[in-house]
Amino acid sequence: MTGPAHEVSDDVIEQTIAVLDSLVEGDRAAEQLISYGKRVIPAVERFLVESRPRSISVSRCRAVRILGALGAYSSLLRYFRKNIAPNDATVLFAEDAVRSAAARELIRNESPATFRVLLDAAKQRPTSGLVQALSQYRWPESVPLLFALFEDDLCREDAKNGLGKMPEAAKAYAILLLRGLTPLPIHGYSASRRRRATLQLLVEFGISMNEWPDLRGFLKDEDRDCVIAAATLGLSFASPAERPSIIGAMLEASAGMNWAQETMAVELLDKWPILGRQVAREIHAEHSKRGEKPNWLSPFWRILHHVLGDEMQVQKPGAL
Prior knowledge:
Elements: H1 10-18, H2 26-36, H3 41-50, H4 58-69, H5 73-82, H6 89-105, H7 112-124, H8 128-135, H9 143-148, H10 156-164, H11 167-178, H12 192-205, H13 224-237, H14 243-253, H15 259-270, H16 273-289, H17 299-308
Helix pairs in contact: 2-4, 3-4, 3-5, 4-6, 5-6, 6-8, 7-8, 8-10, 11-12, 12-13, 13-14, 13-15, 14-16, 15-17
C-alpha cells in the first residue's frame, strides 16, 4: 500500500478502506488513505454515507477523520443530510460518536450552509460534538436549541458553554424563558434542570435591578439549586432593602438541601456576614418561640449554627 497517489488503483483504495475496521492496523490505514490524497474521497464517502452504521463506530470515525483531513467537507455535509437514525439502540449510540466527529471536522468549514446543516442535525438528535460545533458560530439562531438542551444530561454542559460565548443573546432569552414567554416549559419537576441551569447562567452573566422582580419567585422554587441561584442574584442585584428577606427565604428553604447545596448556601452567607447573622438571629428566635429544638441532622440548624455560633446557646453538633 505504498507509492504515489496517482499510481494507487481503486482496488488498493478499497482494500485499504476495509482495513479501517482493524483495531490494530486501522489508524495506519487511515493515515495511508490520507497520504493518497483527494483520489480516495469518493470511495471513503461511499463507505461513510452508504454503508450501514454499526455497533462499533471506530471505522466510521476514521472515515470522518480522513474526509476532514482532505478537506472533503461536502462529503461530511452529505453524510448529515443522508443520515437516518438506526433503530437499534446500541447502533444509534455508536453512531452518535460518528456524528460528533463529523461536526467537529466541519468547524473548519464555517459557512451559513454548514451552520444550517449542523443546526438541523442537532434538532434531530443532538450530540456533544454537534453542540460544540454550533457554539463556535456564536450565532443567536442557535440560542433556543441550546436552552432546550438544558434537559439533556449529555449535552447540558456543552450547551451552557456555547451560550456563554454569546452572553447578550443568551441573557435576553434566559429572562424571557424564566418569564414563561418562550415555547420551552419551565414549571414542574420535569423542567427543574432547565430552570436551574438558566438561573446559574444568569449568575455568571449578571442582571439589572429591573430584571430582578421577574426572578424573585424562584426563591420559593421546589429545587433548592434554583433557590440558591435566585438568592445569589438577589443579594447582588436587588435593592438593599430586599436583602434580609432574600436571606430569610434561603434559610427557610435550607431544610431540604443536600450536602452540596448546604455548602453553597454557607459560602453565600459567608459573603454577607453582618446581614446573615442579623437574619439568622431573627429566624432562630422565631423557631425558639415555637419550642423547636435544634436537629443537627437538618441542614437548616447546621447553617444557623454556622452563622450564629455560640449565640445559639445550645448543645453544639457533636457534643455529648
